[in-house]
Amino acid sequence: MPNLIAKSALFGRAPLTLSGTTLAEAQVGTLTSVAVFPGKLTKVKKTLGGFPAPNTVAGNLIWTGPEQVFVLGPVPDLTGLAAVTDQSGGWAALRLSGPMAADALMRLYPLDLRAAHFPKDTCARAPLGHMQSILIAEEAGFLILIFRSMARTAWHEIETALHALTARTAAI
Amino acid sequence: MRIAGKGLIDRTKPVSFTFDGKSYFGFAGDTLASALMANGVRLVGRSFKYHRPRGILTAGPEEPNAMVEVRDGASQSPNTRATVQEIYDGLAAQSQNRWPSLRYDLLSVNDLAAPFLSAGFYYKTFMWPRAFWEGLYEPLIRRAAGLGRLKPQNETASYEKAFAFCDLLVIGSGPAGLMAALTAARAGADVILAEQDSLMGGRLLSGAGTLGMPWVDATLAELRGLPNVRLMARTTVVGAYDQGTYAALERVGLHVPAAPHLPRECFWRIVAGQAILATGALERPIAFDNNDRPGIMLASAALTYLNRFGVVPGQKITLFANNDHARQAVRQLMAAGVQVVAILDSRADASTVEECPVYLSAAVTDTQGRHGLTQISGTHAGGAFKIDTDCLLMSGGWNPLVNIACHQNARPIWREDIAAFVPQPGMVPGLAAAGSANGAFSTQAALREGADAAIAALTELGRSAAAPDLPQAEDAPYRLQALWALPGKGRAWLDFANDVTVKDVKLAAQEGYTSVEHMKRYTTQGMAPDQGKNSNVSALAVLADATGRGIAETGTTTFRAPFTPVSIGALGAGGQGAGFAPQRYMTSDQASRDRGAPMVEAGLWYRPSYFPKPGETTWRQSCDREVLTVRSTVGVADVSTLGKIDIQGPDAVRFLDFVYTNTFSTLPVGRVRYGLMLREDGFVLDDGTTARLGDTHYLMTTTTAAAGQVMRHLDFVHQAYCPKWQVRFISVTESWAQFAVAGPLAKMLLNALLDQRIDDFPFMTYGEVSVEGVKARLFRISFSGEEGYEIAVPTAYGEALFRDLLAKAETLGGCAYGMEALNVMRIEKGFITHAEIHGRITAFDIGMAKMVASKKDCIGKAASQRPGLIGPEREQLVGLRPITQTEIGAGAHLFNPGDKAERVNDQGYVTSVCWSPVFESYLGLAFLKDGRARYGQRVRLIDHMRKTDVLCEVSDPVFLDPEGAKLRA
Amino acid sequence: MRLTCPLCGTRDRREFYYSGSEDYLNRPAEGAPIEAWDDMLHLRTNPAGVTKDLWYHETGCGSWLLVTRNTITHAVLATELVAARKGGAA
User: Fold this and answer.
1) pLDDT tens-digit profile of B310-322?
2) Residue B373 exposed, middle or buried by CB count within 10 Å (0-12, 13-18, 19+)
3) Where are the domains of chain A?
4) Where would I find the beta strands (DSSP E) of B346-456?
5) pLDDT given at position B122
6) Which fold has domain B1-152?
7) Nearest to B454 by CA among B207, B214, B272
8) Which residues of B touch C1 (CB under 8 A)?
9) Alpha-carbon distance B765 to B968, whole Å?
């Protein structure tokens, strides 16, 4: 057992709820990048039990680039088939759910995030403001993976968007 | 004066506001202009150049005269159009460009000097003496001319930006826009209807045409009920960009009192599959002498004030027009009980059947009234006339609002039958004009074109829409006889906002500025906040007349975005303060701040500058102590910001050999090697170390500064030149927290913390270790010149490990060290950073030419050996030490002693400088011509900015431990 | 401006980093004369019309794209992955 204390990116930050929409740090556990070596996709697909199409999520597999997925949870042995790289600590996870979630994120992402255009199990590698991120549509909102060092900025930007939207509602 | 029973204002909700400090009341739904008009205020501003008294000309965003400052202090906004600004309780507005008051403006003497202030006046008069320009003329002119004042304070209000997507964007909500939106919405298309006004309905709100508010209300109700429609009021589409992207500015918080977090404006980027331009048309003024007095306004504006706001602009009204269309304004005014004294129609063959006298072949040639119109004079079929009137409505016909269609540089075409420019299809791909914007002026035609445009747009999108039943509406022919300017001896205004008259345009033509673009710049016509919306077509018609060319041949100036002014705050929305750039924090951030470390920006990262101890009052004291501590005991620094790239695959080493100049195929597992990376043009891109973690597994490090650039470069090399190689890589910068442990006691410190001892761990070795039960990576590398290690743990454990390392270091007499000490030690050791790798240096320059392996190809190899990139003429990396104890600075240039310190004698420049507590001297790194051959010689270090002139001795850049004994200890 | 990433779909221009001419793809073989390197590195035609250049989907999937576009009309005519381009490297 480690004697060092592990901390998440926004350790101890309480969730924020504005107008019924909640921003919270999420814990996604082990996160591993699987980047397939040329010509090995079929075998990797078989070993992983599938491989998501671009911009989609399939079970615990999140598409993140050309023949590349992030795997949530344990990864089977892929020696010789793919580069397997632990990414667990490198990403902060934020969850945004509620009625204003899409509107708030459409202040920051240049993407159409309305449910009809970005339904559950859709994902995108796209910038949140100036920051690289992985955006995943879930049942009731979005999961945002952002470089750990930028988690505070991401929180600040989403919080600002939520405040502005709330103020708009009050001003009408 | 209010008219009972008229207007869309809410008379149950009085609103209190001030103008020039005086309190007034209006009603909810009023603009500042309509509320001032209701209070009998006619004089609302002073003109740009002549300080002429001005009133309200229009009822829309094109207003050139009625511009005011709203709000105070940091939230003050100049040049706010009173015709757009809605009133709210507490609104404070002030008139502009007058002193001491609007009514008694001392600079109105400019008006008397008008004969000297014609077009080109500034160019001609202030040519000489040249020295007077900056000191005298410019400040004088700036004080005298102008509109609103810029506020001195920083912006504090918040702005918002947002993205939107739709199948069809309809720009404008008049009859054409409403019909287009309805047609597309009923067909299920995803529709955005954007309207600059606070209410939707366009001209129908003004009572123009016969289609009334019931149809508007019913249509809007239906649109509101459809989930696939977004109605965006107060949203002006200001620009058309590539691939169906439109910019729009929404007034979010400008019509209500300021509230916390409420943005003033939102800048929208709307991506539309198709768009319909239904922006309508603007009525144009007629140029006649003294046509700028308060009380002279556009006929359509009067119609808007009557029906939208229930207010009339005068009590004895006259109309001067060249078309049938304008008459509906006076007809409706008469029906509302307002006295209309006369209709003056410029045409000889117009109808005279009205409820008031109609004079044909009329020409208004002058007006009277100092602060407001009292009388007009001129001629008509019956001879000369003088008429007492307090309000002259004018109409010179209509200009379709083609602006947005022209934003991609296509030009509109001239239609002689309506004497106006109209857009052509395809000017902006995916955008079609409908209704008045397309030159179809009747309400019925607008409805029809709106529906047709929507059907066509949906067809383009691969959808179909049913043709709607169109309601019956006014379909009167638009009879017009072009009339731009009347002859006169005085000044007849074209551009009210910039004080440009017919004479100015004629003078420009006479002086050779016959191109419309030259005329514009010479006279400044069209360059005011209204961007010539009221004057461009008339001005070029006058120019065409003066040059004897046709209007079509004369052509228009370029229409540029934005359509109406956009505040810088809106464009920069989200970029204030912390929103300017992402802030990257290391895991040790809080621990460093807890120790009082000032944080400095390193790219996007925040890194500790130094760690002050009690009693230390300057950064240098802390820095010197940290350096000496590391050199004598041990120091700890967070180096997590260095880029880390995990590279795997059977071809990984082949890839490394290709991107690095030196060879990696000889690197054994568990070893680390320094690598140099070039750009393809032969200049140094970056440097760093790469460790071989396993048989086909490598970890590359990059500098903090170039981490992103290196990733982009590797991706390019991989995808462009070797996509089939068995190699993949990914950044792990964020996955590992990494700390440098350096100094003679570094090993002792690590042995106290690691779960296993590292007694045999030579220089440039890598090993997997564990620290307090956590798996870790240990590298024996050094950026300080001391025995050094870097230990990496998964980021989650970074903060805990940093605190433990520090606590343990302190028991050994060690300390944490910051960026300042890190920089001093690397200069002492002659290690380069991006102060040296600045994009213009080669491997040869930094003495690493031998690192470009001869036996293999690599990126940049061929180009690095080009003539001119190697040889004694190159500036080469050297060390510098002042002969006397004098402070030196980076950025200084080097000269041979005895040479004049001029550019032609330049021998090189200084890139990095520090005070070395070890050598008790300033040290510098510099690039010096043929520097390696000049060790031991002297150069003059000269900094003209800091006024330094110091003699220095040139040396090897490695000052400390050139044999590397300490490193390898 | 919008570009279509063959993997991610049509995206806003801000997601992309502009690099330059497609000439960078034609890397001379080892030992090629210095003129060949000069051509690749520096000589550009700057066409008024159809041009091919390289864009990096930097805040997206990390793919390099070969974009065919018209510098006069601003039309984007085609995009393909550099890694999978016709006649690309092995």
Assistant:
1) 999 999 999 999 9
2) buried
3) 18-27+90-171, 31-86
4) 358-359, 363-368, 375-380, 383-388, 391-395, 398-400, 413-415, 420-422, 431-433
5) 64
6) Ubiquitin-like (UB roll) (3.10.20)
7) B272
8) 241-243, 245
9) 11
Residues ≥6 apart with Cβ < 8 Å to B794: A6, A86, A88, A89, B735, B736, B737, B774, B775
**pLDDT tens by residue, B22-52:** 999 999 999 999 999 999 999 999 998 889 9
Asked if B712 lies within 8 A of C56 by C-beta distance, the reply is: yes
DSSP string, B394-422: EE--EEE--GGGGTTSPPPEEEGGGTEEE
Residue B472 structure tokens: 């019956």
Give the CA angle between residues B133, B138, B139 to the nearest 5°. 125
Cβ pair C12:A132 closer than 8 A: no
Q: Out of B242, B719, B863, whose CB is closest to C41?
A: B863
Identify whether the C-beta of residue B378 lies closer than 8 Å to the C-beta of residue B399.
no
User: What average pLDDT does this structure show over B228-257?
Assistant: 97
Give the closest-approach CA distance of B647 to chain A in angstroms: 8
- Contacts of B604 by beta carbon, 8 Å cutoff, 6+ apart: A150, B581, B582, B583, B584
CATH code at B872-969: 2.40.30.110
* Burial of residue B218, with CB atoms counted within 10 A of its CB: 0-12 exposed, 13-18 middle, 19 or more buried: exposed
| Contact in structure between B682 and B865 (CB atoms under 8 Å) | yes
Topology of the domain comprising B160-279+400-460: FAD/NAD(P)-binding domain (3.50.50)
Decide if B202 contacts B172 (C-beta within 8 A). yes
**Architecture, CATH, for domain C2-84:** 2-Layer Sandwich (3.30)
pLDDT at residue B137 in the model? 67
- Going from the C-alpha of C66 to that of each of A124, B300, B409, B728, C80, the distances in angstroms are 21, 53, 27, 21, 5
| Per-residue pLDDT at B815 | 98
- Banded pLDDT at B99 (limits 50, 70, 90): confident
Domain ranges of chain B: 1-152, 160-279+400-460, 282-398+479-554, 584-641+735-826, 643-731, 872-969
Rounding to the nearest 10 degrees, give the CA dihedral for residues B914, B920, B921, B922. Answer: 10
Element housing B591 (H / E): helix B589-594
B160-279+400-460 shares its CATH topology with B282-398+479-554: yes
Which CATH architecture group holds A18-27+90-171? 2-Layer Sandwich (3.30)
pLDDT at residue B128 is higher than 70: no
For residue B118, what pLDDT is reported?
A: 75
Using CB atoms within 10 Å of the CB of residue B845, give its burial: 0 to 12 exposed, 13 to 18 middle, 19+ buried.
buried
| Disruptive mutation site among C74, C76, C77, C86 for chain B (greatest number of B CBs within 10 Å) | C74
**DSSP assignment, residue B135?**
I
Say what the pLDDT of residue B154 is: 84
Q: Token pair for residue B737?
A: 């927290």
Say if CB C54 and CB C67 are below 8 A apart. Answer: yes
Mention the CATH class of domain B643-731.
alpha beta
Distances (CA, A) of B907 to B846, B877, B901, B902, C71: 16, 12, 10, 10, 43
Contact (CB, 8 A) for B343 and B369: no
Please state which CATH number belongs to domain B584-641+735-826.
3.30.1360.120
Residue A123 reports pLDDT greater than 90 = yes
pLDDT tens across B874-910, in order? 999 999 999 998 999 999 999 999 999 999 999 999 9
Cβ within 8 Å, pair B721-C17? no
Closest CA to B279 of B433, B473, B423: B433
Determine whether the interchain pair C41/B712 forms a contact, defined as Cβ–Cβ distance below 8 Å: no
d(CA B26, CA B38): 8
Other CB atoms within 10 A of residue C45 CB: 8
Nearest residue to B290 (alpha-carbon basis) of B469, B492, B443: B492
